[in-house]
Every structure is written in structure tokens, then in C-alpha cells.
Write a structure and sequence with these properties.
The protein has eleven helices and seven strands. With 306 residues, the chain is of the alpha+beta class. It folds into two domains: 91 residues, OB fold (Dihydrolipoamide Acetyltransferase, E2P); 196 residues, Orthogonal Bundle (Hypothetical protein af1432), CATH 1.10.3210. Helix 5 packs across helix 10 and helix 6 packs across helix 10. The chain is elongated. It starts with 14 loop residues before the first strand and ends with a helix.
Length: 306
């Protein structure tokens, strides 16, 4: 396997000598009673199962789940699915900036997404709300995290009732642009909506996710992400960045939209106090559900008709 090869380009019968993220590690027993290892290896193009039958306990001591590992072996197949048959496995040390190539990433152009998000912010005319968005997006650290963060972790839901969606690097930026774009279109259909408030709320509604995740061989939650969640983290970002020209009344209206973008909390005596909050909840859920179905391979009516 060449240095440029990826999981997506693996072919049956070829030799493998490369680096992957180990995202699952299990020690199992064969019918003979001998131990063997079952692994799931991943890079930015996908994942593949791997097994090691010889010296399983020796190899298992050389790495842990969540490590980047160098593996050697051969591409085989099991039940018509590609599988790596490994002879060597060991932990590999890599600088942090190289870790992204082992994680799933957006296929969209991040520069274009950023440029369109800036265009959407320019569509906000109220000085206080526009100034808030500009302050947040001018924060270089937050901007870098916005480019990198996903919306959810693989295999979990995102918010109450929302499916996993945009569970890859760049997913947050992709989702933010989609929700903000739908907010603009909705204001065209319903002209009585407070356009500036809804667009601003769409731009900032998930910014707490920039502090929710950490990155290594896998994407995981930070301590503050586990303990506070992205909504509370986002509200704190808004509070810190609010410019003086943003009145307390308008900030409260914005915070209400952000706080309820997954709907009113179960059992809480809180309801939508504005059409803009209800609108943000609906367009956010629409993008999450549609994208989630597409990611799970649900297909489209056009594909089904072929």
C-alpha cells in the first residue's frame, strides 16, 4: 500500500503497511480457545474491520483503542466485506496537526462555506446583532474551531429526537450555513418575521459546539461539553461578545432563540415566546433530519425511481 492509499482505495489481495486510527479493539476467543484481536480502523475516507490471529496478546499490549497505529498485513475478505488480516500492530506517535487525516471530514469547500457565512452576516442590518456576529467570527481561535468542529459524534443522536448528523470535521460550519440559508428563505415567505433576529440566531445557534469537542484518533467530548452542553456554552459566548449597541431586550430575544433551538426542555415551564424561536427550531430540525437520513444511506425519491 502506498503512502497515499486510503481505506477507500483498498483492494483485495494487496499488502498493507500504513497508519490508521484504532477506534475499536476487542480480544475474543476462537473456537479452538486461542485469543485473537478484532479491530476497527479508520481514516478520513472510511473504516475497515481488521483481525490479528497470531500473537494476539503480545500485539494487544502495544496499543490501545484511540491510538494511531501502524499496521502490516494483507487485504482479505469476510462475508464479501473487505477485512485486513494483520501480522503486526504498534502504536505510532504523530504531531497533533496530522491527526485530522484520520477523521471523517466534510466534502465541501471550507473556504467557500466560510465566505458564504460572512455574506449571510452582511445580510444582518441591525448594528447590535450584526456587530455580535462580527465580533464572534473575528475571534481567530473560535473561527478555527468553527471550521473544524462536527455537529455530533458518530453513532449518537444530536439533541432531543434529532438524529446524528454532520458527524465529521467541518460539519458544524456546513450545518450553520445550511440553517442560516433556510432562515433567509423563510423570511422571504413570512415577511413579518424579524429577519435580522432570525438570521443572527441561525448563525450563532450552535457556536457552543466549538468548545464541545476534542480531537485525537477519535472525536470526543471535552469536559465542559459533557457537563454543560453546547447550548449553555453558546449562551456564554454570546454574553461575552455582546457589543454595547446590542440592547438587553434584543440580546434576551436572541438568547431565547438559541436556548430553544432544540425545542422547549422536557418538563420545563418554558414555551416559544417568539415566532423567530419557533422558526429556528424548525429549520434546525429540518436540516438535521434530512442530512441525518442522507448520511445513513436512506437515499432519495429520485434514486428510488431509477
Amino acid at each position: 500500500m502506498s503512502a497515499q492509499s486510503t481505506i477507500a482505495t483498498l483492494r483485495r489481495g494487496e499488502q498493507v503497511d500504513g497508519l490508521f486510527a484504532c477506534v475499536r479493539k476487542e480480544r475474543l476467543l476462537a473456537r479452538t480457545g486461542n485469543p485473537y484481536l478484532t479491530l476497527e480502523l479508520r481514516d478520513s475516507t472510511g473504516s475497515v474491520l481488521a483481525r490479528a490471529f497470531n500473537d494476539a496478546d503480545v500485539l494487544a499490549g502495544r496499543f490501545e483503542r484511540g491510538d494511531i497505529v501502524r499496521v502490516r498485513g494483507r487485504v482479505g475478505a469476510f462475508k464479501d466485506e473487505l477485512q485486513l488480516e494483520l501480522t503486526q500492530i504498534e502504536r505510532a506517535e504523530l504531531p497533533e496537526q496530522e491527526m485530522a487525516r484520520f477523521l471523517p471530514s466534510t466534502r465541501q469547500d471550507v473556504e467557500e462555506l466560510e465566505g458564504f457565512l460572512e455574506h449571510l452576516v452582511r445580510e444582518i442590518y441591525e448594528p447590535g446583532l450584526r456587530g455580535l456576529c462580527q465580533r464572534l467570527l473575528s475571534d481567530r481561535r473560535l473561527r478555527a474551531e468553527l471550521r473544524r468542529a462536527p455537529c455530533s459524534l458518530p453513532g449518537e443522536s444530536s439533541g432531543r429526537g434529532a438524529p446524528r448528523h454532520h458527524a465529521y470535521l467541518g460539519g458544524l460550519l456546513e450545518h450553520t450555513v445550511a440553517v442560516s440559508s433556510m432562515a433567509v428563505e423563510l423570511c422571504t415567505v413570512h415577511a413579518r418575521l424579524d429577519r435580522d433576529l432570525l438570521i443572527c440566531a441561525a448563525v450563532v445557534h450552535d457556536l457552543g459546539k466549538t468548545q464541545e469537542f476534542s480531537y485525537a484518533a477519535e472525536i470526543e467530548r471535552t469536559e465542559q461539553g459533557r457537563m454543560l452542553g453546547h447550548i449553555e456554552l453558546g449562551l456564554r459566548l454570546i454574553s461575552r461578545a455582546a457589543p454595547t449597541e446590542l440592547s438587553e431586550r434584543r440580546r434576551l430575544a436572541l438568547e431565547h432563540c438559541v436556548a430553544l433551538h432544540h425545542g422547549p426542555p422536557d418538563g420545563a415551564d418554558v414555551r416559544f415566546a417568539s415566532a423567530e424561536a419557533a422558526a429556528l427550531y424548525r429549520v434546525n430540525a429540518l436540516d438535521a433530519h434530512v442530512k441525518g437520513m442522507l448520511e445513513r444511506g436512506a437515499g432519495t425519491a429520485r434514486a428510488a425511481a431509477r
